Amino acid sequence: MSNKDLRFNSKTIHGGQSPDKAYGAVMPPIYQTSTYAQSTPGGHQGFEYSRSGNPTRAALEASLASIENGNYGLAFGSGLAAIDAVMKLMKPGDEIVSTNDLYGGSYRLFKKVFEDFGLKFHFVGMQDVAAVEEKINENTRLLWVETPTNPMMNVIDIEAMAALAEKHKLLLAVDNTFATPYLQLPLDLGADIVMHSATKYLGGHSDVVVGALVVKDKELADKLYFLQNASGAVCGPMDSFLTLRGIKTLHVRMQRHCENGRIVAEYLKAHPAIEKVYWPGFEDHPNHDVAARQMRDFGGMVSFVPKGSSYDAAIAIVEKLKVFTLAESLGGVESLAGHPASMTHASIPKEEREKSGVVDSLIRLSVGIEDAADLVADLEQAIG
Ligand SMILES: *Cc1c(COP(=O)(O)O)cnc(C)c1O
């Protein structure tokens, strides 16, 4: 049985992996080296310089390709470095359509960096397929999707976006950071590129900053590999090792994140002091049908607004939490709480933020894999 035929819960452990050639090490060694001895100029064993390639990074890249059902994986020094490489496929004048409820750092990279290089970005609620199509013109080259969205948990129909991309001959890229390949496989749904902030669920232990791209197509992989090497934002051997170790437990962690996410979402929904809870597993979530179709489960990210909707009320809650740590980021084994308006989404102007629902009182939870009863008790004491 080749690695390709394995089921997902085995691919996380074995996908693209084989014992190290030197001594049979089962875990890939951390090849902490910048360069490799050559017997004669060009006479190397597959690696010449670690920006261009490193065996530990190559092991991670093979794992990434395997778990996303792609053929080629590329690991970067951060999620944003991975997005940066995709944007460098574009030329001045090219247009990109993306969601209006986007990770703040992606928005900042698009607006504050790439607009100055002549790219044009349109931000629309991509749950509305017709609204996306309205923004497409002869200069459009790329659809950039993030689903579920951060922090509003909107769900975008990847197959519908793939149909638009095919009709208008566009590239479709999906930021799969929130869902992970445990929950959804964008390449199987018609995307050309999957992107990850592996800093989050893939690494899973809040101990690295790493980014990833996975594609099926060889020509696209070659272009991205060229950019990865030419621009140089690669992921180091130690971080590659840690991310690979994280991926080996992705399926068990995700299963628990989903179970705890449901318990926390349902607790908040029933709480009299909570105004609104955003979680795609609720049947009355506006995109629940799409979520149920394209995702295996609904994940561990939950956002909510306390009643009275004040900035101060939200701050008071996040300051009182003890098991949940007030911190940026998500996807680690430990539960985190964030206040998007002042933290992850502060780089988006207030009017833009509020248009997509990121009000000053919104709180975002990354529900970890602790005992759910402790998480609920912590919320109980903080909300009162
Ligand atoms: C964190 C995050 C990013 C950026 O990744 P970094 O690893 O922090 O550079 C991009 N997209 C989403 C959805 C994220 O959560």
TrEMBL record:
Cofactor(s) this protein cannot do without: pyridoxal 5'-phosphate
Q: Which family does it belong to?
A: Belongs to the trans-sulfuration enzymes family.
GO term, biological process aspect, one: transsulfuration
Q: Which species does this protein come from?
A: Zeaxanthinibacter enoshimensis
Q: Write the record's keywords in alphabetical order, separated by commas.
A: Lyase, Pyridoxal phosphate
Which InterPro entries did the record assign? Cys/Met-Metab_PyrdxlP-dep_enz (IPR000277), Cys_met_metab_PP (IPR054542), PyrdxlP-dep_Trfase (IPR015424), PyrdxlP-dep_Trfase_major (IPR015421), PyrdxlP-dep_Trfase_small (IPR015422)
Question: Could you tell me which residues carry N6-(pyridoxal phosphate)lysine?
Answer: 200
Give me the Gene Ontology terms describing cellular component: cytoplasm
Q: What is this protein called?
A: Cystathionine beta-lyase
Transmembrane annotation, as ranges? none
Among PROSITE patterns, the record links this protein to: CYS_MET_METAB_PP (PS00868)
- Superkingdom, taxonomy of origin: Bacteria
- Give GO terms: molecular function aspect only: cystathionine gamma-lyase activity; cystathionine gamma-synthase activity; pyridoxal phosphate binding
Any one Pfam family here would be: Cys_Met_Meta_PP
